[in-house]
Amino acid sequence: MSSSSSSSLHIITLMWCLFLFFTWCVEVADATSSTSEMWFENLVKNSNNSTGGSKVEDAQYFHIYYGQTFKVIKNGVDGKSYLLIQNNTKMATRTKYCTGRIKSFVIPLSNYSVETESFPVSFFELLGLLGTLQGITSDTVASECVMKSYMEGGIQMISKTELDKLKQFTAHFVGNTDEQACNFATFLPFYEDTPLQRAEWIKYVGVYANLEMRANQVYDSVKENYLCLTKVAANKTTSFKPIVAWLDYSEGTWSFTKDEYKMKYVVDAGGENIDESMNKNTYNISVSDNLDDLFAILCTVDLVIDETYVSDPATYTLSTFLQNINIEDKSSIGFLANQRLWRYDKRVLNSSLDWYNGAVSQPQLVLADLMEAFFPTGNYSTTYLRNLAKAKPVVSINPQTCTRATSAAMEPVVVACQ
Fold first, then answer.
1. How far apart are CA 34 and CA 37, in angstroms?
2. How many folded domains does the chain comprise?
3. Residue 285's domain is classified under what CATH number?
4. Pair 65, 72: CB distance under 8 Å
5. Cα separation of the two ends of the chain
6. In this prediction, what percent of the chain has a pLDDT beyond 70?
7. pLDDT above 80 for 260
8. Closest-CA residue to 199 (of 398, 342, 86, 362)
């Protein structure tokens, strides 16, 4: 073979190799092919979940996997996998996913926004991430420090319908599974069934910021305190556990709430949930038989937590409850006679309850509140619960009550456990 032929063959071979190489590492922008998703799944399978970082212990709806230059969060609620690529790697410049099942982000996030309606921004505060929060969709967020940053111009307000404006952020966190833009990332602790499972979602956020160590520390502190309090509650020496009912009123009808995490709270705080055979129905107060059935059940209950929604919690009083339930004689029902009617609307900002924010990331505080309600000592000031029967008022939080730098991490509260 002549030298020119040999040279041509080498050139062809080299070009073919380059073609294969660039085909393999080409940027996969808006990829939709099954081949791309199969490559991604193999990437996850070959990742190592024991190389440090965060390990999911209790939560059921997300898992974390680690590679050398990337991380993957598999979200069990929306069915998506989130590929998080370190910003100092070649992979960050050549790989981009936005399919029905896969999205990719470069981390740590340089900035982000959140859809703030009933969204638990407290997880981000515990990680010290308010400094990079640059957008919110409403002022209905029960966080004094978020609102302080907004009032000072550090955060901009953008309507959740203005998708083009939301695309400016590296990531936009949402609390639903609706159809989303490429930079939308779901954050869904409310789907979990127990308080600790919900609290562990701090690890989900930590992965986006390379703050796994901080996330682990916070969750370990919360979990240790929570479990310690459950042991204290289990050792309460009373003849009978208090029977507890969560009640909700809407459009003339009362119903018993059956959320699993609330049932778990009651048990962990040393109480007993109302029997399932008794709370399966709704009760229309305009129907006399319904009302009689409801009163018969309530006469067996020791404590009620009223969850009725109102736009202004400060206006909801004992009189409101009595009117809604059509009771005139308080002495005829035990939990009213003993002043054991509670609500979880004690902390409020702009009509938004901190129950849907801080209480999610720090369930040990809710547990301590319930223990005080079940076994009153008079020595503990509740955080989220207020005694409606004793006319306890709501506490309005505002930007002025934020006493730390917005970029500083909020520390989890450790309740005295003895």
1. 5
2. 2
3. 3.40.50.1980
4. yes
5. 90
6. 87
7. yes
8. 362
